Amino acid sequence: MASPNHSPPSPSNADRDHVNDHVDDHIDDQPENTSTAPAPMDAALKDDEESAAEVQADPDAILRGFRLYAIAIGVCFGALMMSLDISILGTALPSVMTDLGDDASNIAWYPASFTLATCAMTPVAGKMASVFPLDLVYSAFTVIFLAGSILCGWAPTSSAFIAGRAIAGIGAAGVASNGLTILVTIAPVAKKPMFMGIGAACFVVGLVAGPLLGGAINIPFNALTLAVVSFFFRPQQGRGGSVSGRIKSLDLVGCFIFVPAIFMFLLAMQTGGQDGIWNTSAIIGLFVGSGVTLLLFVAWEWRQGDQAMIPGKLAMRRTVVFSCLFAAAQMGGLTVASYYLPAWFQAIQGVGPLQSGVRILPTVITQMVTTILSSSLALRIRYYNPWFFIGAILTCTSNALFTTFTVFSTPASHWIGYQVIQGLGAGFGMQMSSLCVQLELKDSPELIPIGIALVMFVQYLGATVIQVIAGTVFNSELDSHLGSVGLTPSQRGALLGVGIKGIREVSDTYFPQLLNPILEAYNAAITRAFFVAVGSAILGFVAAFGIKWRPVEELYQAREIYRGLAAPKMSMSFSRDLDPINSPHIYSSALGLPPGQIPSFMSKWTFRRLDVSK
């Protein structure tokens, strides 16, 4: 070993290659650390062996430079176009119905066909990404999404349009969940949360920009996404084995049981929420059929074990369960706010759909910025958990403030400030569930695509269920208050038939003296709906207590050790238990040297506390 009075020699390229060639082959043979000092990193190495080996085996998995940003931009465009497709229908629906010559009988199916298909197919898309090459799976779902969008544009009838929406929903399931998986795969470990935050921010922008941008850019931008991902992205090839073996690993039986179970449940929720009648034979039959089918699905998944569509070792993890519960509650509350805030602007302030979209920009801008910043802040404080609580508290506070809206005395400073709080809460909490599930599954990287898809599935499910509950509260309160105003049942029917944006016109035409009481009734109904969002945020806050506290660096340790082992100057550094001077047995064993002996150039390496903020 070099004398302390002389600078140690720099490692040669041959030395570095010698280290890299041997560490992966011999890291399993490390002797037990007999030192009395604790060695937490030894356990981390052992736990992350498979994950680190994947990085070594596939050096192109982690990208930098042009390829990284090209793929990230393409994936973000995909998320933007998917959310744009969701939001554009709200303002385009009257024109679409007029062009297709449709009446109001099919109006519920226009948005519901997309939502039902996306929610039911999201776990299936995640399972496919864990079995087949990720680029092929993502491209296939993008093509399906494009096909659905094209069919919607060319649909001659309402039935064809609804079918196109359902096809687009199937494609959207894979575009969203597998897009996040791609970002997780290609990004350097310290930047994964930031890239996921940017992807989530693009999704949020699309939800609000739909009325502003329109649907004409959907097809060309999705084609661009498909071209970029197909050309630049070269992932690992999924599981080995024949095509038939991979298809068998998909758990097709579980998929065929799961999809109708979720479809029946969501259809019952959508129909009951729209009609306000829950005791019909059709609704009861759908709920019973869904429950029986879900029990059959659980039994089948238990039988399949690790080959299940949702493996038990994933579904039984406490952190995964409570992260999903938080995600469902958070998304449900945000969905309520995103629907009833524009409704309040249109009904109470009398603005059109475009202006209502502009007025919720404080939420969108704040959420977009905070979503990106929250990842860096989480890395600095070393834990994701505080952001669950902060996000839930801010979301609960903002929705509670929304319940104070009045018809005549709510200034712009109030609804702008309340939305800023809403955006902060959404930005801090939205992506933490996906990040925390990745951290929990670091020892089983093959489950990460399924875990991300599971989080997105429960977000869709939570949004649907909580939105239906809020809609039921809104309809009940509105009917009660309109009755107290003095409107006859036929007058109430006429008023409700024109929707939110037509209430002022109908009131001015038929009963102008009742305009103010009618606005008071709508204001009371909308503010009551926000109480559902408050309860959803409280549920998310409680769920956050069930998530394990694990330091963020656990997600990065093993992968960066393997990738940076031969570098004399490391951008990321680790605890003293990996210092060659303090733990020479790790390196002597891996390099085939006598116990405790290390090459002289290794004495130059320094290992400090992990700093992922660089």
Automatic annotation (TrEMBL):
<dbReference type="InterPro" id="IPR020846">
    <property type="entry name" value="MFS_dom"/>
</dbReference>
<feature type="transmembrane region" description="Helical">
    <location>
        <begin position="107"/>
        <end position="124"/>
    </location>
</feature>
<feature type="domain" description="Major facilitator superfamily (MFS) profile">
    <location>
        <begin position="71"/>
        <end position="552"/>
    </location>
</feature>
<dbReference type="InterPro" id="IPR036259">
    <property type="entry name" value="MFS_trans_sf"/>
</dbReference>
<feature type="compositionally biased region" description="Pro residues">
    <location>
        <begin position="1"/>
        <end position="11"/>
    </location>
</feature>
<keyword id="KW-1133">Transmembrane helix</keyword>
<feature type="transmembrane region" description="Helical">
    <location>
        <begin position="320"/>
        <end position="340"/>
    </location>
</feature>
<protein>
    <recommendedName>
        <fullName>Major facilitator superfamily (MFS) profile domain-containing protein</fullName>
    </recommendedName>
</protein>
<feature type="transmembrane region" description="Helical">
    <location>
        <begin position="360"/>
        <end position="379"/>
    </location>
</feature>
<feature type="transmembrane region" description="Helical">
    <location>
        <begin position="249"/>
        <end position="269"/>
    </location>
</feature>
<dbReference type="InterPro" id="IPR001958">
    <property type="entry name" value="Tet-R_TetA/multi-R_MdtG-like"/>
</dbReference>
<feature type="transmembrane region" description="Helical">
    <location>
        <begin position="525"/>
        <end position="547"/>
    </location>
</feature>
<feature type="transmembrane region" description="Helical">
    <location>
        <begin position="447"/>
        <end position="470"/>
    </location>
</feature>
<feature type="transmembrane region" description="Helical">
    <location>
        <begin position="281"/>
        <end position="300"/>
    </location>
</feature>
<feature type="transmembrane region" description="Helical">
    <location>
        <begin position="136"/>
        <end position="156"/>
    </location>
</feature>
<keyword id="KW-0472">Membrane</keyword>
<feature type="transmembrane region" description="Helical">
    <location>
        <begin position="162"/>
        <end position="187"/>
    </location>
</feature>
<feature type="region of interest" description="Disordered">
    <location>
        <begin position="1"/>
        <end position="52"/>
    </location>
</feature>
<feature type="compositionally biased region" description="Basic and acidic residues">
    <location>
        <begin position="14"/>
        <end position="29"/>
    </location>
</feature>
<feature type="transmembrane region" description="Helical">
    <location>
        <begin position="68"/>
        <end position="95"/>
    </location>
</feature>
<dbReference type="Pfam" id="PF07690">
    <property type="entry name" value="MFS_1"/>
</dbReference>
<dbReference type="GO" id="GO:0005886">
    <property type="term" value="C:plasma membrane"/>
</dbReference>
<dbReference type="InterPro" id="IPR011701">
    <property type="entry name" value="MFS"/>
</dbReference>
<feature type="transmembrane region" description="Helical">
    <location>
        <begin position="386"/>
        <end position="409"/>
    </location>
</feature>
<dbReference type="GO" id="GO:0022857">
    <property type="term" value="F:transmembrane transporter activity"/>
</dbReference>
<feature type="transmembrane region" description="Helical">
    <location>
        <begin position="219"/>
        <end position="237"/>
    </location>
</feature>
<comment type="similarity">
    <text>Belongs to the major facilitator superfamily. TCR/Tet family.</text>
</comment>
<feature type="transmembrane region" description="Helical">
    <location>
        <begin position="415"/>
        <end position="435"/>
    </location>
</feature>
<keyword id="KW-0812">Transmembrane</keyword>
